[in-house]
DNA sequence: CACTATCGGAAAGTATTGGTTTCCATATGA
DNA sequence: TCATATGGAAACCAATACTTTCCGATAGTG
């Protein structure tokens, strides 16, 4: 365990904590007070840290998604767990109807169920936008929807590329959780680039 | 204040707390123990709740960005505050160099400074991805970068559409903070749609 | 075989965060 | 007049993510 801790760069106390919380499976006991941890434990540990630190999941949320990887549910169910875990649940009743209509309009032609957590969460965001008095005159929402479609398609290709069910499930989880963070990060870079293109001098920046 | 509380649907105690934390400017005092709050306070209150609840900012982060709206710094500086507030700061030294190279490759031709917080954060995400053993064979990263470019361009158009500096600054902040949440939400919906298109039956879902 | 160091595990402690409650001396309004 | 409401300070609180302390047992070292 000390070895696992030093290889992963995570304090022993924290590993014990994850073990206790059921995030990390116990090592193989070689004696009443000795256990062996292998490559899988290391991978899992890195996954957990990624979900928690980079993906900003709470302990409970992280447990839910790693459980989904381990259980042998299908891909669709794994997606559902992932989506419900990362989306804050929005109560449809206290949702601005105008916002919901705008979101639905931006998703025209999409096959999306009424209680898709993303649809509801998007309406919540647009509702906030409207409440502050930002009207969305230039089709901001619609263009974001188009970008989302691109990303979702990339996600599915990435999942399809993995060899077996467990690897695919892991990609569903990791892609859903870390994809948010990745896109957010790339958007910041793209903002700088776009700003520089529009307003900057020719000599600004470098590829 | 009771009125402000009931209109905004936020407990008085919470409003007092925001006042104390410097998130909300004090009302105009009409007597030693009476103050008037106007439309601006209501708007600001809604903005704060949006940043905190929907955008998941902490109190300190929210204060920093509303301060940026109120101060009369330029648009570029506002962007900087927004970006630095929403991106977790990544130490460039403990960053996987291979990951950084992949990110730079995906951003070929972009005018982005070396210490752009998005560039570093993206490298962190990709580093996590690699550490878990997910190789990105299908250009996932590059396709996300393309989507991010679309979003960033929509962001700039939205900002340009606003009438004055303060409104633009507000859109910079709101767009940066809530844009992350919006895209994440739309991606979930798009995932369901794309999944249904690829694997679903013809009768699945409805536009 | 002695004996120190380390093991895994339980339980209690801690720092931070985002409020909430309580208290207070005014001041308003029926 | 006198219960009620006000703004403001300070103490309190629940949740979260660890961290520390303690434990009895066992592994490794000489």
Report on the architecture of this protein.
2 copies of one chain form a homodimer. Chain A is mainly α and 207 residues long. Chain A has helices at 2-8, 12-20, 39-54, 59-70, 75-86, 97-106, 117-132, 140-160, 165-199; strands at residues 28-31, 34-36. In chain A, strands 1-2 form a two-stranded antiparallel sheet. Chain A starts with a helix and ends in an 8-residue tail after the last helix. The mean pLDDT of chain A is 93. At the A-B interface, helix 3, helix 5, helix 7, helix 8 and helix 9 of A face helix 3, helix 5, helix 7, helix 8 and helix 9 of B. Chain A binds a DNA duplex (30 and 30 nucleotides) through residues 1-2, 11, 13-14, 16-17, 19-21, 26-27, 29, 31-35, 52, 58-60.
Task: Give unreliable regions of chain A as ranges.
Answer: none
Q: Which shape of chain A, going by the Cα principal axes?
A: elongated
Strand content of chain A: under 5%
Query: What is the topology, as strand order, of the major beta sheet of chain A?
Result: 1-2
- Strand elements of chain A, count: 2
> How is the biggest beta sheet of chain A arranged?
2 strands, antiparallel
Q: SSE order of chain A, as H and E?
A: HHEEHHHHHHH
Helix- and strand-based class of chain A? mainly alpha
> Fraction of residues of chain A in helices?
55-70%
User: Which chains make the largest contact?
Assistant: A-B, 90 and 90 residues
**What oligomeric state is this?**
homodimer
Query: Mean pLDDT score of chain A, rounded?
Result: 93
Treating each run of at least 4 consecutive H or I residues as one helix, how many helices of chain A? 9
Tell me the span between the first and last alpha carbons of chain A. 44 Å
Rg value of chain A: 21 Å
């Amino acid at each position: 365990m000390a070895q696992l801790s030093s290889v992963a760069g995570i304090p022993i106390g924290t590993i014990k904590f994850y073990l206790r919380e059921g995030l990390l499976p116990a090592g193989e006991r070689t004696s009443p007070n000795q256990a062996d941890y292998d490559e899988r434990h290391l991978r899992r540990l890195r996954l957990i840290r990624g979900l928690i630190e980079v993906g900003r999941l709470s302990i409970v949320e992280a447990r839910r998604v790693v459980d989904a990887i381990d259980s042998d549910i299908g891909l669709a169910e794994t997606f559902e767990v992932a989506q419900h875990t990362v989306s804050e649940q929005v109560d449809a009743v206290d949702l601005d109807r105008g916002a919901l209509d705008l979101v639905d309009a931006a998703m025209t032609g999409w096959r999306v169920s009424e209680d898709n957590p993303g649809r509801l969460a998007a309406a919540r965001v647009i509702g906030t936008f409207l409440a502050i008095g930002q009207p969305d005159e230039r089709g901001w929402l619609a263009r974001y929807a188009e970008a989302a479609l691109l990303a979702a398609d990339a996600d599915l290709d990435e999942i399809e590329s993995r060899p077996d069910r467990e690897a695919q499930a892991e990609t569903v989880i990791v892609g859903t959780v870390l994809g948010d963070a990745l896109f957010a990060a790339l958007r910041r870079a793209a903002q700088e680039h776009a700003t520089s293109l529009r307003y900057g001098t020719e000599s600004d920046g470098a590829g």
